[in-house]
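Practice problem: predict the structure.
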Amino acid sequence: MSPTTRLAIYSSFINGKCINDHDTKDTLPDNHTPVVSPATNKAVLGFVPSTPQDVENAISAATEAFHATDDDTDDTASWSHHSQTSNRASILLSIANELRQNTTRLADLEVQQIGRPCKEMRFQLSRLPEWFEYYASLLRVHEESVKPFGPGYLNVTKRVALGVVVQITPFNHPLLITVKKLAPALAAGNTVVIKPSELAPASVIEFAKLCTKAGLPPGVLNVLLGGKEVGECLISDTRIVKVDFTGGPSAGKEIGRQAGANLCYVTQELGGKAPMIVMPPPGGTQLYTAEKLNEYLDPIVNGCAFGAFIASGQTCIAGTRAIVHESIYEIFKEKMVLKVKCFRMGHPECTDTTIGPVITSKQLSFMDTCVKEGLSSDLESLELLCGGKRYTAFQDEKEELNHGNWYEPT
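Answer:
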């Protein structure tokens, strides 16, 4: 990359601010890591990986913000104290408001990083404020309970914050999964250190800035940038009381091992292999005219196509298989193929694009190999109904997309 290339360069967000702002400077830092758009395989922004000292600073800031006492003279210091419940609710509502005002900007940044269609991302991010509003409302109405136990006993249920929580998020839904983890953690009074995927760090940093603007006290939310090394450094620290990870099984095993060494709470979501089960209409197909059967199946086909191909199939809840009742199998198959052939590949920034690229060239090669090996295997009888190869037929103003990670919907 040329040293004069103008890219936004992001750095760690610690104690309420980015530690080194290189935004669109002519001279880029030598240690920056490029973030490549999967649509073109060209660098679109970059980040400076967090150092061990950055990790130490982030955890220290989060620890200080959590343990500050309510008699501190700084009225923003007591984030975890029970007296701050109303304040936390107000700040969560302010964060929701900031998110709502910046939905398009954040969505477009996610499109730039991960190549998902802008129409898809703008809708997804438009729902994110609801998470903060929901947990703010819980804070307003939450009451501790006293449960019956027996004569002479008083059984009180009291919910308290854990402490410093690490959250490690994936590339496929950078802000969605961040928000789903962060909103309840903040509502409960925890302080948080987030490590987003090194493939999609920018939107999480921009969101952290909005949280500070909304009134979140310094140190309550920190964001570190980088790959496996940063995550390992974070999880190994004994001040971390919980790790929340979304990603793959191999990383999950290693994270579980490291967190277990510190007797740390762990929550992990490691993907799935979800089937979509399609049954005939009540009473059987013989009771339905062709028109009525179409009315029954069309929304099912739309739902299955959405479940299978949202985020180009790169999501933990993707419907990776369809198990279809034999009485409707042929018509379902015909309709599904027609639906998939209607998907439109193109610039992710265009509102008429309905499916984007896969995240890396490595993943593209893996998918292509799986399809080819499946079709050539003697162990299974597979039929290719559509797609099945890399797409490189973009023309004119879209020609640069031929360098991206595009695969025909298959």
